[in-house]
Amino acid sequence: MNIFVLGTILLASFCFAQNSWFFSKQKIASIKAPSTIRVLLHELKGKKSLVIKSKGGFLLETLDGKKQTIPDVIITICWHQHGIMINKIPYKNTINLNPLNGIFSTNQRTYRGKLRLILEKNKIFVVNTVSIEEYVYCVLKTESWPGWPLETNKTLAITCRTYAISKALEARSQKKLYDVTDTNKFQTYHGIHKTPVIAQALKDTQGIIIAHNNQPILAMYDSCCGGVIPSRIETINQKKTPYLARTYACPYCKNCPAYHWQTSMPITHLCKKIPCNEKYFNTLVITKKDRAGLVQELLIKGKGISMTITGNKTYSFSNTIKSFYFDTQKKGNSIVFKGRGLGHHIGLCQWGAHEMTKKGFNYKQILQYYYPTTKLVSII
Predict the structure, then answer these.
(1) 217 and 352 co-located in one domain
(2) 76 lies in a domain?
(3) Burial code of 262-296, b = ≥16 C-beta within 10 A, e = fewer?
(4) Distance between CA atoms of residues 174 and 169, nearest Å
(5) Domain extent at residue 275
(6) Mean pLDDT of the region 77-89
(7) Which among 79, 108, 224, 301 could bridge 256 via Cys, Cβ 3.0 to 4.6 Å?
(8) Strands across the sheet containing 95-99
(9) CA trace torsion 140, 144, 149, 155 (10° rounding)
(10) Is residue 65 part of a domain?
(11) 213 and 287, same structural domain?
(12) Residue 278's pLDDT is what?
């Protein structure tokens, strides 16, 4: 073990000892936060349609307060030139369409909560309003890892809850139609499941979030940080989000399968993504990294070609490029990418948090380690 890693662990151990005393003595403060979150499930336009099922039927409510019961178990929604079409009946404006038993299914997934069909710019936005706790419970099924223990899931429950509330507050202050989507652009949300350890994690941490200056933090997290030091990442606004600017490397995620990764991309595939003529392509070289080692710019070289692309664009070329920390090398008719980590390297490292759990740290200590300068609070 090198001196740097040893020093980091010793410092972390000292901090944990201090924080254990801090949390045992502190009476957790309370702050106001939304109790629900609005999740965009679908966008309908053109000839697209959506089938929604609910055993109890639906209650339809228009913006002017008129209500009607739709006894149909299965309904079809689509856009048309005059508004929203439900089972071939047109409605001109945004409506609430709520399952009478509180549960509905669509696209082979089942959800709790309410539905709103928002008519905007020749589109129908299908938005599910659900309680924060139900949302976090659903999210953890996809954002956590099967078989991880209770303490790790408690850590992730608080992280996911905090992120959701932060995004809800941001969206509502900006008067957006919804708070988050159901994809990993925010947090992956695939509806109802039955996982006892996740249910227990929610129960044990109900209403607890992470705060900085008495506000919910933007609790970003990734699968494996790859040992990158976040304070050196240039995209982090250290004044606005100092809790994301951790100044020490995480040594705990080295057992993650994606801590080291390698992938090969055929030049033909690369040239389709850019795009460029593969006949004149020679190689792809990195020309700029930030202080953390994350790729910012690359240069495509070739006969009559000199093209710069961003690290972000390259990351989007394939899901086999797992992070922004990589090097490139041409081999034959392919470009080989060798990198570290899985995700954006910011905030809580999930595999690191799991390893810390195995070493005996509790969720309070883990959260303090990955989000320095924060505290735990209760929402009301």
Answers:
(1) yes
(2) yes
(3) ebebebeebbeebebebeebeebeeeebbebbbbe
(4) 9
(5) 260-340
(6) 90
(7) 224
(8) 67-70, 58-62, 95-99, 114-120, 123-131, 36-44, 180-181
(9) -70
(10) yes
(11) no
(12) 86
Tokens 């922004």, residue located: 324
pLDDT tens digits for range 158-181: 999 999 999 999 999 999 999 999
Are residues 171 and 179 in contact, defined by beta-carbon separation less than 8 angstroms? yes
For helices 150-173 and 196-204, the axis angle rounded to 10 degrees is: 70
Q: Is residue 6's pLDDT more than 90? A: no
Measured on CA atoms in the order 319, 323, 324, 328, is the torsion positive or negative? negative
Each residue's pLDDT tens digit, 141-161: 999 999 999 999 999 999 999
d(CA 58, CA 100): 5
CA distance 64 to 173: 24
Beta bridge partners of 90: 85
Length of the chain as a residue count:
380
Co-location of 355 and 211 in the same domain: yes
Residues 177, 93 share a domain: no
User: Is residue 119 a contact partner of residue 84, using CB atoms and an 8 Å limit?
Assistant: yes
Residue 277 has what pLDDT?
85
Whether 351 contacts 253, CB under 8 Å: yes
Proportion of the chain above pLDDT 70, given as a percent: 93
User: CB of 219 within 8 A of CB of 164?
Assistant: no
CA 279, 280, 283, 288 torsion-angle sign: negative
Residue 5 lies in a domain: no
Angle of the 363-370 helix axis to the 150-173 helix axis, nearest 10: 50
